Amino acid sequence: MHQIELETQNEELKRVKLALEESRDRYENLYEFAPVGYFSFTRVGRIVEANMTGAALLGVPRAILINRGFGSFVAPENLDRWERHLVSVLQSEVSFGGDYEKQSCELPLRRADGSTLHARLESVRLDPPAGSGAVPVIHTVLSDIAERKRAE
Fold it and tell me: CA of 82: how far to CAs of 54, 74, 106, 116, in Å?
């Protein structure tokens, strides 16, 4: 009887593990191949994480992006706008439902090949759990708005 119960539990664990792996794979595909770039920044604008689309939009391999300052993709004449955006995100208030205010900014960015990417950044601050000792992270969605700019 005990052996049958253990085998049943083992089969259930295998099913749950497979379901979790499938869920993780779906999330990973959604994240990596989304039609927008996803970035996570430190409070000073260093890239902590980027999806494949984000790396492709900037024309840089993802491995090279990590720990690089996002400001290096911003034209010097727009660095102050980028820095104001970061400050605005870090100073954003938590709304009634516990959600953070989304901060938006449009910036021309310089790709690795020297071409310009007209981008819209939508960012939120994510605070770590209290007492964890971790610092806030800024999550940003980067969209290519070149078509809209051409139409304007």
Answer: 17, 7, 9, 16
Which strands sit side by side in the sheet containing 116-126, from one edge to the other?
47-50, 37-41, 137-144, 116-126, 103-110
Could you tell me the pTM of the whole model? 0.80
Closest CA to 57 of 1, 124, 132, 107: 107
Query: What would the pLDDT profile of 26-41 be if each residue is shown by its tens digit?
Result: 878 787 889 999 999 9
71-119 pLDDT per residue, tens: 999 989 999 999 999 999 998 876 555 567 789 999 999 999 999 999 9
What would the CATH number be for the domain defined by 35-151?
A: 3.30.450.20
Q: Name the residue ranges covered by the structural domains of the chain.
A: 1-32, 35-151
